[in-house]
Amino acid sequence: MKSLFGKLADGTKVHRWSLENGGTRLKVLNWGGVVQGLEIPDRHGHYTNVALGFDNIDDYVAKTPYFGALIGRYGNRIAKGQFTLDGKSYQLSVNDGVNSLHGGKQGFDKHIWDVEPFAKGSDVGLVLHYTSIDGEMGYPGTLKAKVTYTLTRHGDWIIDYEATTDKATVVNLTSHVYWNLAGEGSGTVEDHELTIAAGRYTPTDTGLIPTGELAKVSGTPFDFRKTKTIGRDIRDGHVQQVQAKGYDHNWVLDKGITSKPEHVATLREPRSGRTLKIATDQPGLQFYSGNFLDGTLTGTGGRTYRQGDALCLETQHFPDAPNHPNFPSTVLRPGQTYRTRTVHTFGA
Ligand code: BGC
Known about the structure:
By secondary structure, this protein is mainly beta. It has one domain (2-347): Beta-galactosidase, Chain A, domain 5 (Distorted Sandwich), CATH 2.70.98. It is built from 2 helices and 29 strands. Strands 11-12-13-14-29-23-22-17-20 form a 9-stranded antiparallel sheet, with no helix packed on it. The protein has a 5-stranded antiparallel sheet with strand order 1-2-3-4-5, with no helix packed on it. Strands 19-18-21-24-27 form a 5-stranded antiparallel sheet, with no helix packed on it. It is globular. Bound molecules: beta-D-glucopyranose. Residues 65-66, 76, 208, 248, 286, 288, 292, 312, 314 line the site of beta-D-glucopyranose.
């Protein structure tokens, strides 16, 4: 079902598609491919929207928390917005202090995408297209991006990312849903239980740029190999947490890059019993504990979002990989197709 969500300043219409399958209800905008709502039942069958969002287009245009958005061309930070590829230096749009974050000032989250609904067998979904022209935000090559959102008959939400380029470039696409499995606007996620299958993470400097080290999680608050609540060690005072105001790091997934998605993380909210399992073929997972939510944004339910009221689990290549030869490469060349998949499985 398609409805009018609002209009941009120039009169362009922003639409919202509502899909439902297997007990999952998804609302998606053609603005940024934004997941504006995602409703799933609790153990008693009671539905709640578990994804943070705005109820109007103006906030999506003016504000930049990246609620529910598709992120491109490069998820997370590139130091000073600079990198060198095949001997050429590139300067990207800088929008986070001296660094480039989530594709720069006008990333994929701040564009209109072409959206086509589909139904295939027992699946329903949307195909989203966006073409980023050569030089946009400083990135080389015209990048044609295609993202498919699928809702399966089991209620799984699958994201398939594809991209091609006509010049060598770097690419790292992800999705920036802020989860609160008790319901958006219901308060802190510190009681959510999290498991991440990663023995290492990438520590950062004060600008949240990876130092290049793949540090062991053992004996640190970053160890989520055994299920624990997000709140348990979040106030440990580890220098990495103090810098980031909580968790805002890339976990180096034990499985590495895989040809098919493998299960890497489980999130559970004990009162509702709602669970989210994430499977990916990507080598990294950014766990961001909503550190910069500060009570100034009002969400879809009319309540404000404060620090720690949601968390993001962004499947990805590592931040700043173009400047770290020891990180898995994010280079895409003409003739190649960038293809990655992330599967979200919900339960209660
Ligand atoms: C980043 C955070 C950033 C947030 C919202 C996350 O993916 O890791 O540092 O503040 O997105 O922009």
